[in-house]
Amino acid sequence: MGPVRPSAAAYVGCAVLGALLCVAPLPELPVPWSAIALLAALHAGCEQLPLPRALGRSRAGGSPTPPFGRRALEGMGTVYPVLLAGAFLLPPAAAAFVPLPGALLARVAERPSWLRRGWRAARLALAVWAASRVHWSLGGRDAVAGPHFPDALLTAGAAVLAFCLALTALDGGILTLAERVPARTAWRGLFLRSLAPVAVHGLAGLMMAVLWRSPYGPVTALLVLLPMYVSCWVFAQYHRERAAHQATIRALVQAVDLKDGYTRGHSERVGQASMMIARELGLHDRRVEVLRFAGILHDVGKLGVPTRLLRKDGPLTPEERRIIELHPEYGHEMVRGIGFLGEARSAILHHHERLDGTGYPYGLRGRQIPECARVVAVADAFDAMTSTRSYRRARPVAAALRELERCSGTQFDPAMVRALIRALDRHGWHPVVTAEEERGNAAPPPALPVAGQPAGRVPGGGGA
Questions:
Q1: pLDDT score of 134 more than 60
Q2: Are 120 and 14 within 8 A, CB to CB?
Q3: Which keywords appear in this protein's UniProt record, sorted alphabetically (predicted)?
Q4: Percent of the chain, pLDDT > 70?
Q5: Which of 167-171, 336-340, 405-409 has the lowest mean pLDDT?
Q6: Could you give the CA distance from residue 80 to residue 99 in angstroms, rounded to a whole number?
Q7: Distance between CA atoms of 125 and 131, rounded to whole angstroms?
């Protein structure tokens, strides 16, 4: 990220000033400093634990997660219970002090680090102050001391809402000023995305506060953090595994793009169309993701095909055709050991099979072709027809769909074609960058077969 915009720096400065005003009455309050110190030390310790941070990239491998705002919301899972316990136990000024030492001492990778530390500290202090102010104004301190249920739950719930609202207001502002997110969309979804996890953390914080006020004291309250830590560790492992999966797929797709740059973007678009078909079929989210992987990697076997054949001008000889038609088998062998791909491997192997048995590599018929391969075949042909090539213009979406319908039952599964049509009617087609935009004035490769065209042309860069 480049230099921080002056407006964003001013915004952070105002947040820091607000946090200082929140903690200003602290020296005059008759509060137990031992409790403040213990909670602050616990929060600071949680900030140093190796628990999940944001993955840093979107699902599609896009731009990094913004260093302000969203990343803070996706931070440590054990911090919020500690902060909310402080909001339930301490007066607002004391509760606002709890996050300051940990936030100011936390590791910050981006520069300027002092500005980001100040933002994180001010953001948390203001949110905790708001939660504590609401909790105490509703008599939550007495409800926790009993505890008196459901009064304790109601006041804690109101405090959690105030906490989330404060975070949402602050994060939307910093996204607008620092990340240049349009103001009309900066706050969209922030509150709802944060409410559920913060509510869970609020329950843990309430448990901590009740145990803290019980005869067993603060030591038992700390036991609440153990299951929270375990759950956050499991969540972190899941995200690390998912990040590794995404990195593997990105590396393979980038290798294919370098090998056959003419179709750059084709793989992502086929993955997008495959995902739309899968969702329209009502498949489980896990299978939808696997089919997206299948679409993205369907042409990975091109890495085993000589580059001169992929980029050859003019017709291919029968021998060259046979070599290129080996790419599904090459791709299957390349991904055979990648366990998380699951049935995507069979889609890579069979996406050029046809329902009438004239496809390759094995000439499977009808239901012999795996469902995932039938999905990718339709998505592949659709993108081949609707993408601009240097030797022909893209077909309109409606024309491409008519061609798919015409070839239903012989080349394509009619159910998959109908699912794509329904998905496009509902959501439209908004593809990622096209090959023509990426390549500029490229030399034309051999023409590709699309649905219904003679089979004498070979898929050098995506197609049916």
A1: yes
A2: no
A3: Membrane, Transmembrane, Transmembrane helix
A4: 81
A5: 336-340
A6: 10
A7: 10
Rounded to the nearest 5°, which phi and psi values hold at 412?
-120, 155
Is 53 buried (19+), middle (13-18) or exposed (0-12) by CB count in 10 A? middle
Judge whether 105 and 47 are in contact, CB under 8 Å. yes
- Could you check whether the bond before residue 361 is cis, i.e. omega within 30 degrees of 0? yes
At 335, the amino acid letter reads V
For the whole model, what pTM was predicted?
Answer: 0.55
Which pair of structure tokens corresponds to residue 407? 């070839």
Reduced to 3 states (helix: H, G, I; strand: E, B; else coil), residue 161 is helix
Task: Write the DSSP symbol of residue 29.
Answer: S
Cα 299 from Cα 245, distance rounded (Å): 18
With 80 as the cut, is the pLDDT of residue 98 above it? yes
- Three-state SS at 412: strand
For 447, the 3-state DSSP assignment is: coil
- What values do phi and psi take at 30, rounded to 5? -85, 75
- Alpha-helical runs (H) found in 216-302: 218-222, 225-259, 266-280, 285-297
| Domains of the chain and any CATH numbers | 6-235 (1.10.1760), 260-439 (1.10.3210.10)
Cis peptide before 91 (omega within 30 of 0): no
Q: Count CB atoms within 10 A of the CB of residue 7.
A: 12
Contacts of 454 (CB under 8 A, 6+ apart): none
Question: Distance between CA atoms of 138 and 254, rounded to whole angstroms?
Answer: 57
Cα distance between residue 391 and residue 385, in whole Å: 12
Using CA atoms, how far apart are residues 252 and 246, in angstroms rounded to an integer?
Answer: 10
Sign of the C-alpha dihedral computed for residues 13, 63, 343 and 420 taken in this order: positive
**Residues 119-133, mean pLDDT to the nearest whole number:** 93
- pLDDT band at residue 73 under the 50/70/90 scheme: very low
Number of Cα atoms under 13 Å in the Cβ half of residue 416: 32
Integer Cα distance of 201 and 84 in angstroms:
8
